[in-house]
Fold these 3 entries.
Entry 1:
Amino acid sequence: MSVTDPLKTTHLFFGPQHPGVTGNMSVEMWFDGDEITKAVTHVGYLHRGFEKLMERRLWIQNFPLVCRICVPEPDINEECYAMAVETLAGIEVPRRARWIRTLVLELARFGFNVMAYGGQAGTLGLGTGSMWGITFRDFVLDLFEELTGGRVYHMYIQPGGVRRDLPEGFKGRVLSVLDKICERLPEMDRLILNNSVFRDRTVGVGIVEPAWVNEMGLVGPVARGSGFRRDVRKDAPYEVYGELNFEVVSEKGCDIYSRTLVRRRDIDLSVDLIRQILDSMPGGPVASRLPNLTEWRVPPGEIYSRIESSRGEYGYYVVSDGSLKPRRVHVRGPSYIHAVPLLERMLVGANIADVSNIMVSLTTCPPEIER
Amino acid sequence: MKFIDVISPFLAWSRAARKADTIPYPLKRNPGSARYRGFHLNDPDKCIGCGRCEEICQNLAIGMVMTENSDTSRGDSGLRPLVDYGRCCWCALCVDVCSTGSLSLSNSYSWATFNADTCAYIPGEDAKAWDNSTGGYRQDNSVLQWAGSPRVDMPEIEPEERVRSFEEVIRGYSPEQAVAEASRCIQCGLCVSACPAHMHIPDYLKAIADGNFARAVNLFYDNNPLPEMCGKVCTRECESVCAMGYQGEAIAIRWLKRFACEQFESLSDVLAVDEKPLEPSGRTVAVIGAGPAGLSAAYYLSRMGFVTHVYDRNGEGGGVARYAIPEYRLPAAGDEKQMDVFRAVGVNFHFNVEVTGDDILKMSDDYDAVFFAVGLQKSSDFKIQGFDLPGVKHAFYFLTSHPEDGKMEVGSRVIVIGGGNVAMDTARTCRRLGAEVIVSYRRRIEDMPADVEEINDAVAERIDIRSKTIPERIEESDSGLRYIYVEAKMVDDPDGGRPKPVRKDDIEHDIEADTIFLAIGQSSETGILPDEISEKLKIKWGRIEVDEHQFTGVRNLYAGGDITPGAGDIITAIADGMRAAEAIAESLRRT
């Protein structure tokens, strides 16, 4: 029988307006009984043409634009773009700015991971978990509001450094927010990880075979949940990650539970890294001088800059032809691989009730797929 | 399945008894943080309407518009930003690049209205609830320097070295330095209206930034036929209003003009074909005085196809700018290069001609128009006791007598009385002749009419400037002259004018000197005009009053430059000449 036989299978569009879907994307599915026989990912609901927009904007005008590619963790875009432009233009970033950037990136990862951790429970109907996750993230957003002036889109990391120095007493407030969240995290663990329903629904479900990791180029928590220690922070350290002391988190279960556990342990790792950063933060200026912003021509060249996002390796390919605007900017997020070929592969044979559970465990982000 | 895993999720219920983390909006409101990027604020008095915010806005959310209270005074375009909140993304780039720092964001973030049209408004003009907000994102130019940066240093000779010769102090930019300096321009164009000649400043700065120096020179000649001279000694009104000067340093517009001219051996070859004169119209114009005003009028009239004849009593063109400004500021070497351009457009020069009153009457009959621009050739008298002693001299005549050849003895100690550019030039020239120099000025240093740059250079060259000193008399002494002065204190003028110096006490101070120079000012020689003309002219304080077309109202006589009231600098004279040329051309085309 054909996997899409209209007489034998049910044909269903899941998304794009569905609380179980990660963002504006949809999955077209055929299923026999409650077992999926074929899945096709559809994107295109969110296309804003970022890459083309960037070709029409001055170099500096792009840094407030790129953050919009990812709502929960915008800073990775600012960082990738800034790193690329700095390398092309030969701009030296002050040391303190590098430390502040690392702090911002870890805070953003932390804010994303606490939300995604709770969100994983939310897909199984455990709304309390996702609400708590969003609350924790809100505490982090308060810190971002104080540091950058914006809660969601920070527009803080700019080519040449960061836009402002840390406010007075910021270290103490970061530590108190970390303490507050860390104190409550065991409560969340009891609710999610030590929950028999959650275990039943996630252990052995949504298997990512270790063999697929290199074959498909899987990265981030997806690869780390399948026994790989793959992390750009360690493999190709950027900013000050080379000066920090940490071990890459990895789990061997290959299932949703392992990926959730990786995320949970990433939260602890971020807390540890933030404390290390705050303890060794050097003094000095936070931005180097840029030329006249409207006359700024970046020397010709091309560059691929990459960093570790909460979803895995995230890169920007930037080409300059020596003019006032980028010739080409390509955004390479991990979500394309995870949401299109991997998801389509994983869903075959899966139970229809596990679809959103599997999708959320891959934490796909549609704006990365359609820039 | 472990039993504990069945029980543990229910422990979450314990949170129900604890305080909620949510904010009960709108009963309780969370104010934005101290750096919050909320609605715009603008200080309309501080804003100069440079449009930098509009230019940097990546969403086209800002448009510059005239407001009801628009004031287009000097250095202010009168435009103010109108922010459209349908487009704004609160990135605050506009705040970080604001040249005066007038624009900021409040920490207010909620606003409900029934009228969507009011969501585009002019901050600072249209009253809003958050106008008095003290929190929010403010500019900090010390972090980013996006609103203003220091200029590229101009290489110059060290003060100890420069007083040994008359070599030009300013060394000039290298092409790399010039491109870097010109690239700082934000193209706001506020300088254009401040420049008396309205030169195309943003355009030529852009041309220099692009490395197209020939285009820059062509743009100079559109409004100024003496660009190299202005590139060295202009009073640079443009730089005083430069938007970059508010939080950094003004663009070195003058030095860049000098740079572009210096790149070419011959300026007339650089000028493009369409800069060449039109076919002769057969009409003729006489220009009396080959100073900046006269040369400017002659150049533009020739380009418009008129036959122009320039008369001057000196042997070369350039007027007082050429004869009175010392070599170390304006070397004579550049003059011939500029004069060649005038010859190339067909200006006829008659040098070493002393024009008399009868000549002027004859010219008025023979030519279709006469432009009178003889400048101020007489040094003002200062009749204090002892002004007529030998050794007391007029600074202006000293400067025009080629003092750099060293034929004139000034002795080892010189006193200069006055505080204008002539006083500074005299003091610095005497310093180069090896004398110790003291400048005596009645008011404070900040009141001196001389360029700040000249005053600073004079101080660097160890010239002793004694401000607030009122001259009493000059006496003969055993070694030469004795200058006696009293100290002054400044008293506010009840009529609102600038503070006046009055005697502080009756204690007399004296200084011995070999030579004393009087640099009180210059006056005109309107006496050369025939009575038939001069009695019809409006002459006030020795200056001929003219209308906005430089027309005197008498016969076909136009006047401009220092002989007419005005700022009395080179660029104003050039502007006068150009304006007169246009007016003459217009009136001749009609008749």
Entry 2:
Amino acid sequence: MEKGCVKELFANPVEIKKLEECARKILKYVTMININGKILLKYKGNKVGFLIIKAPVEEIKVVRYWIGPFCIKSELSYQNKFVGVLVIKNEF
Amino acid sequence: MNFKRSDTIVPISIGLTQGLSSAFFIIIATRLGASPFLIGIISSSPYFGNLLAPFWSYIAQKMKIPKTLAITIFLDSAILSILSFIKTPLSFTLFVMIYFTFFGAWDTLYPALIDSVYAEFAVNLIARFNEFRSIVYTMIVAFSGSIMGLWGYKTTFLIASVVLFISGIIILKSKSKTASDNIRKTNTVALIKEDSGIRKLVSIFMIAGTGMLMMLPAIPILEVNLLNLSDAKIGILLAVNSLAYILCMEVWSYYVKNITRLYTTFSVGIVAIIGMALIYAFLPDYFMLILANIFCGIGESSLSFFWQTFSISYPDYRTEDLSSLHLFTCGIRGIYAPLFGALIISVFDVKMNFLLSIFLILISLFGFLFKGREIFSV
């Protein structure tokens, strides 16, 4: 996976555009598992988020984010509607 | 981002108001001769205010956030003025309940107001504003007890009333751009039902929280009626508690770099709360109470930090949904636990209250050590 963006995210103050680009890169590498209509996002076997609909990755936007001590949680939107969550961990 | 410096005045005013008035409600009620039951009701009141979050969200949709928030603040300012003249415990309790009912709007609508003005910058801004509020509270609460000792609580309550009125005017002038997403409703009960990990964590927090909150009526009874501490000394205890909280929040954010360390933080916090309860139960001396309040600050900060980090790290739900769940469950236990504590004091004594608290908190610690660590497993 493209790890450069994750390292850069945690090394500098978060900018929403860079976070959005990184989230899209990560979304291309995650495994998506559909469980009762909710799409679980897994990376290296660990849950990293979910999507409520399968949206085109390039059009997904980050609308809000929370910075934790070892991860950044992004709220994702597609066509101005909430579609899911992605947790980007510093250990990615 | 066009950040307005005047926006920092509001959290600073709220910190001042809390340090000058609401931090001492329970102490003043005890001095006025309130029974353990009334003290229990006062302890529960802020949590009842939390439970009204959906109601305030509904009102704000009808009236707009700044207007709703400003009206509740003006009403609270008036209630503080009335409280400064009240001398009977029953009326004092009644007005404190009304005060916290309106103050519940602050917890719900202020983040929503900031969110509507600052959009994606709001999350970090709210955290910063909350830090300002805590720092101002810590500084003022250390002195307000001395002011009360000199001129009585009437003076501090009236100052707080004026400060609160000014923050109401500033809020009224705020221009929120859009209806906020922050006040979207969350089905917290469904969240508990569908996720066993969340159920375990909520159960652990409910047991620990019950033990912690049932001590609320015992603390002022011990400090005021049994130890005869002055308002100035109690103010220092409150300030020490708050300072320990602020410093530990910083320490945790440097220390916690992975899940294992987050678990350690929680365990350290629970042990600190047990240490605090042991001091109140067996070594109730003023200087030991200072240590107990440091332990209390450590414990409270670790539990807040744990849930805050959990809300951000748990990938199955939105951060806001998990924060709402915490607020809701805090509201539930905040209502029954102080009343349960008051019952124990009435039937037995203050010491029994602390011992039972220790017992409950120990159960939650064992629950966490044996079951709680599975929460983040896949």
Entry 3:
Amino acid sequence: MLMKCNQGYVNNPVPRRSESFWHIAKKSLLLGIMLFCSLSFLAAQNDLKVSVNFKNEPVGSALREIERQTGLNFIYNADHLKDIPAVTYSGKDVPLSKFLNDIIGNRLNLKFENNNVIMSPNTRQENERINLVGIVKDEDNQPIMAVSVYLKGETKIGASTDENGMYNFSVAADKRNAIAIFSFIGYETVNIPVSELKMLKSVTLKSKTLELSDVVVTGIFKKTSENYTGAAVTISAKELMQNGNRNLIQSLSNIDPTINLIDNNLYGSNPNRLPELQIRGNSSVPNISELKDETRVGINTPLIVLDGFESSLKKMYDLNENEVESITILKDASATGIYGSRGANGVIVITTKAPTMGKLRVSYRGDATIETPDLTEYHVLNAKEKLALELRVGLYTNPRAEYQWPLSRYYSYLLGEVNRGVDTYWLSIPLRVGVGQKHNVRIEGGDKTFRYSASAQYNDLQGVMKESFRKTFNGTINLSYYLKNVKFTNSLMLGLGNSQESSYGTFSNYVSMNPYWAAYDENGNALKTMGNSGNSDYRQRWDFLPTSPLYNATLHSFDKDNTFDITNNFSLEWKPIRELILRARIGLYRSNTESDIYKPGDHTDFAKYSEADLFRKGSYNYGVGKSNKYDASLNASYNKTFGKHMIYAGLDLNLRESATVNYGFKAEGFNNEKFDFIAMAMQYAQSSKPTGSESKVRAIGLTSNINYTYANRYYVDFSYRTDGSSQFGSNKRFAPFWSAGIGWNLHQESFLKGKDKINFLKVRGSVGTTGSQTFNAYQSISTYRYFTDDRYFNWIGAQLMGLGNNDLQWQQKFNMNLGLEAKFFNSRLGFTLDLYSDKTTEMISSISSPAANGFTSYVENVGEMRNKGYELKVTAAIIRNTAKQIFWNVTIGAMHNDNKIISVSQALLDAQKSIEEAKVANPSILYKPGYSSNTLWVVPSAGIDPSNGKEIYIDRLGNPTYVWDARDIIGFGSTDPKLQGIISTMFKYKGFTLNTSFGYKIKGKSYNSTLINKVENADFKYNVDSRVYYDRWSKVGDVSAFKGLDVTSPTYKTSRFVQEENLFRCQNLTLQYEMKNPKLSRVVKIENILFTASTSDLFYWTSIKKERGLNYPYSHQFSFSVNITF
Amino acid sequence: MKLKNFIYTIILLVTFNSCSDWLTVYPKTEMPSNVQFASEQGYKDAVAGVYTLMKSSTLYGAGLSFTNIEYMASLWDVSTDTAPYYLALHQFTNTTAKEITDAIYVKQYNVIVNINSILENIDKDTTIFKTPGTYKLIKGECLALRAFIHFDIMRMFGPVPSTGDVGSIKTIPYVTKVSKDINVPITYDEFKTQIFNDFTEAETLLAGVDPILNYSVKALKIPSSSGYFAPSDFFVHRIIRMNYYAVKALQARAYLWYGEKQLAYESALAVINATNPDGTKKFTLGSSDDFANTNYNFPTEHIFCMYDYSLYKKYSDNFATGTLKKGSTVASIKTTMFGNTGTDIRELNLWELITLSNNTTCHILKKYLVPETPFDLNTDFRQIPVIRLSELYLIAVEAASDQTLWDDFRNTRGIAALTLPADEIALKTAILMEFRKEFYGEGQLFYLYKRFNTVKTSILFYNSSLVVNYVVPLPETELK
């Protein structure tokens, strides 16, 4: 509707053409205008051209200028011009129509009448709607249902496609420039402006090449992460590369705080020591026979799945990290339920890189690694202090004069040595700066039908103790062949390992060496015996003169391991129809290991052999191990969408066998160190026999998994697995495991959809059962064992080994998990929270039976344990400046686990009795109902009596006493920290990336074994911690943490050494520079170069002063690497 | 759909047809019971296993023959505050002493479970026994062994038979199955019934097959040099296994314990009078000739014994080193026990005063002195007797006051004839005196003291602190 005659309408005067262009251009005019974009108008005005130069000119005045230039009259209501922005425009001979269109657009209606241009509000179009009708198809031209279509920024306007893929909705005409979004899981989102969409009759969605972050690789099935109800973390190869260079396991723990590496203070940074890791705490308790073996390694290790097949921690440790595509950590029942009897400890799924298409690409990565020892926590006495201490504690005093004289003489000899300047810092003697290297070459290429990749890695890890190393070689050949809808893949992996322990022996031997002993004689040769005064005076102090561990290093000896393993995985994938994928896989694994430990006769181990045993000196330990595994599976997965319903179903049948054998024997009598061949031995070790073990386990598992999603908003997951294993009783051969999960994508709900502040919000929960199988392979059956060292007359007998238990079954773990995942502010703030509560029941344990049954115990399912806790991860993109290419992300991970044993068998309790009551310095791991398995069991202490330097204990009645009594032992806190986790940050500027990862632990109890072993129970004959000298009680009134020097009775496990530990350490610092220079690639055909410098374990701050790395010190690692792709 | 059916078929086939078999995996170092008992050899090995366990040091290889049980009978010198000391004082609640008696109990029942494991399986498939007689021999031996071991457990841990009404006392279970289930103690009388049931069944089974009925002990030991053609080497050397006469002999011992004197007498006579096909006696009383041939353990008297190839070492460790000794002079034995007869061949030959390297002297028993490596099987008597002929003589004398047998016995031992006293107490005393001399170091005296409920003062070499207690307490685990 046009409003012609209105008070507000202004009749402009006829323009005066004579005014100069520049003059006019500077005039400000008020003008209302609407350009009607009809062709007729444009055609009519084609000849009219204007020359303008406006700068922030109000529209009115701009129009007046046009009137002036063209002689046209613009009729309008000034109100209508309010919404039109000021004009900034310049041009010569611009067609009027274009000009008007450019400045007014479609905001007003414009009608040309004679010399008048009538401008009116666009009322007709305001009511006009644009109907959008069409069909959404996939690449195969099949309609897709339930695709959501909506306008960007306006979730209320939209629709989803029906069963024929049709969508039908309308938008207001003023939305013509809005963007319509088509999105559906598994497909790439398509954005089309409404104006274009109007013309289109069909929209094609391309199926997404799933991004890593969008899928969860469970090792059996692939699931989209958006609709996944499990708690899982996926880590990409790139992240691994940026977060550490020690080994894969270490890098993993630098990224995800739930990977809990158990610190092994004994073995420090020994490259040949496998780390122990856990996900969500202990879930198993060892059985009686394993109690004494405090290492507990294995029973809580997560299942490691490499390309769909069960693998081992060792394999993971040695794996070529450049071959890793991604690692997924599965934690809760919904995620691990598909692994049934193996899933209780969590699952780590490693996927290796598949060859990618393209012409031959070669990449090389080289690393140089430097390891330096970390001795910051060692504080030993120097020669002068040590000798003074010895004198102080009375090592050189004897009431009887005939003994006193030699003692005094011996003391003077030592004092002479000290004064001579002997002050050996033994700690540095066996150490070095380890320089290692790593080389990796990978080639890949191929076309649509045939692709290949091959890689080789040589990794030379040089530890900080001299001569200790681990050298591995990994070779991989991957081939894949595509034939229509069938895909063949074969991956062959070869691993060779060669490792050696330091011939310098155990580090602790050096720590305890007295500094006043010279390590070398005047000719620079290592001395064998220490403190030899050249006469018999030493006999008053030493029965046998102590030997130097250094001497052994000068001899020819070795302690080495060789391993060889080969893995071949073959898979055949067939996609008969779009929705169905069938896969058959078979994996074969074989490994051989060999260990050789040789010590020649001159080795100090044999120093005390008597004359008669002269020829028995020197020993050789030989061990050999073989392992064979096969693993086969058939797998079907089906994915179909009906309207708003989407169904995923998967079925997997898995069959596997694992057999291992190892044995070894010892020979002795190697009197010439050069003859290091075992056949040169004089005999087998006296009264020894070959040792060995053997096990074979077979298992079968049938897993099914169903996922149903409604409208991409609500989804449920259900999985069921039946597992059969040879490890369990014949009546319980098969066990069922299940899990169920639900999830809700709140961000897909209309009230949140399209909001900038909340981009992703998902709530999920799961329950289910899993089991663990890390037990003796044969404990369920009653077996006969033949006597190998006894007989009856001429008959070799066999005896029954125990009461079998045909009802023995899996240890069950009931898992509950509640998770929340969210992304806010354009995904700049990410948030993941998981709360869990797990309960292990039916723990495998020995239980007592009356002796009249023939055996005092048998293995039964008894005992319960609970773990509950939370895991929180917050990621913030603090700087995200794409223009300047500056990025800064910070991630904070925090977790807490609370472990509690609910019940254990009486037999286990009884068996622990002697361990608990043992009069030893360090508390033992005990499993007692009501307490965490990480509880420290000690006698409570009230500290040192300032009047006499003795320790005051608190007995079970609460009374103070000087007497240590095992019955007073109580649980004194747990080593589980209140909070632990990581703080990591990534800073990126252009080609530079800096990653840092810090680990922290807050308020965990820790038993300071250094204080008790090296200060309080210090053996003054050898070197001790400096606190012995400075901090022990010495006179009445001293308030000291340590007993008096003259209190010689040993201290047993007491709460005095339980300390609270707060820890902060830098686990990793990596700087990367990526050079992507097109010029470079043209000249030398290098695609890109990546330089990396990184350090591991740069610092370690703890509130506890405790010697770290007893048998092998910890190290800092610095590495430099270059990665080139041609 | 066809495809689905195909998949289901495969899954079903694999899962249910062969799965359970496939999932059954056996260790290489051990053999599951069902495989062990799938062959005759497996049974033989399990039987050999039972004897191997029986001759262990805890049981009849030392503990129940010459060490711990003899401490309990005050036969060896002990040092204060040691386990033997508490055993000698019958302070069985002392921790160290208790460890020893508990271990005996546990091990005895461990032997029983091994026996029961055989018995539980043996009737499942008798066709696997290819050698004639094997089935009966094994089953008979096992039943008798089960009765014998239970009897010994009862003798040690059960009540004193002569004290009041013991018949309804429930102390220990008679275990006949391999199971995790708790075995309930049964009454003294029920226990007795079980013992004799097993003995009787064993006797019947062995009567048909045991070659000891038809061949001499010696012939069975070395079949090649005699007319005996053993169906397998499992049938040789019967006296080191539970043979027919052993069953009879042990029955006699058990009958006497339970006061069945007539039955005891009959059973004893069956052994004493047993003859070889050539009319000679199957078992003969030993003589000084045995000592002359350095066969100190009277091998001709052995009805059932434990063969121990390491007996020389045991002798060296226990006796030659003076660990087990009675006094540092000859007086205690020669005078106190033997009465300085000068004729008793045991007094003259079985004891020796030796001088140790530290110049101390000790008086030791030579009963177990055997050559380290016997010249041949003929002279291989590395045997620890479980029951000897002389005991049967004494059983018969006690049960029926058989003067002839008493005379025969005393005669062979080189001591003067003695008219059996009519008075029962006097008779018992006379028997006790002889029993002590005869079975010193053979683990029988404690039981005799218990059966006679001997007072402290009648116990030879008793310690003044001894408070007689013949009932050894059960391990804690057994107290309900």
